[in-house]
Amino acid sequence: MKYLKTLFKRPLVRLAFVALGLSSAWAYMAISGPSSEIVQAAEKRLAQGQLVAQAANVAGLSETAPVVIELFTSQGCSSCPPADALLTELADQPGIIALSYHVDYWDYIGWKDPFSSPEATQRQRDYGSSMSLRYVYTPQLVIDGRKELVGSRRGDVLLGIEEAAKAGKAVSLSITGNTLSEPTVNFNKELPLGGSATLWVAVFDEQHETEIQRGENKGLFMVNKHVVRGFERVGEWNGIDVSLSFSFASLGLSPKDGYALLLQDGTGGAILGAVLHESNPS
């Protein structure tokens, strides 16, 4: 097993898996993850709804910043259902902003994902470029714009979220005004190194349930949570002003179920601040 881990770290070996038609998720599944004791402890904190809060407390942070997880998935990908199920579970956890992006490059294999979009694929490719990845894949999970991993690797995902929670965020965001029409985004703290950051908005549908009729997942009844249906640049924040206002209508978006605001370094860099707004929070 140790030999397999070492072997799989080589880029050419990982690329060979893809060339042979084997997903990265499948390959990773053949390799052991973190120790069961560490994962079991994280599972316990998850069950208590304290995964993010306890990690922030251990790091000595005065406030708990939300951790943003972005899953790149497809209803046409046979490796994706376990990752979709994990995201659905994590979306209801305090301190976590979970977003599901359905890419379109699986649409030609038997089943066209009704929620796929080229914008989702571009978002994933921006991360791939920023992280100098040789390729992107499904199910790929990005945590706080800083770390990517296979979205079905439950133990790795939980520990990655805790790691991000311990790092905190440079800026905290809040929303005031007419939150469903023309919200005002309030920034607490300045950017530590000056400069500017990009403010993005991701509008999502709360949940979709789909019976897959064809393709690799034929016969499955899939549940997808926080499905991103629109992702747009709100503007640049100069790192100093205390607020920024925008109109959903001007962006061509309708935040029926909810949205997340992400303050990010460029198009695929680290997420410096985030806030979630749900129209009907559970």
Give helix and strand order, one letter per element, not per position.
HHHHHEHEHEEHEEEEEHEE
Runs in which pLDDT lies below 50 for 5 or more consecutive residues are 1-5, 17-32
Q: Per DSSP, what share of the residues sits in E-state strands of 2 or more residues?
A: 25-35%
Coarse shape: globular
Strand order of the largest sheet: 2-1-3-4
Nearest-integer average pLDDT: 89
The CATH class assignment is Alpha Beta
* CATH domain fold name: Glutaredoxin
CATH level-two architecture: 3-Layer(aba) Sandwich
- Please outline the major beta sheet: 4 strands, mixed
Number of domains: 1
Write down the Rg.
19 Å
**Count of beta strands:** 11
* Number of H- or I-type helical stretches: 9
The CATH superfamily turns out to be Glutaredoxin
Terminal CA distance reads 43 Å
Instruction: Give the % helix.
Output: 25-40%
> Which structural category do the helix and sheet elements fall into?
alpha+beta
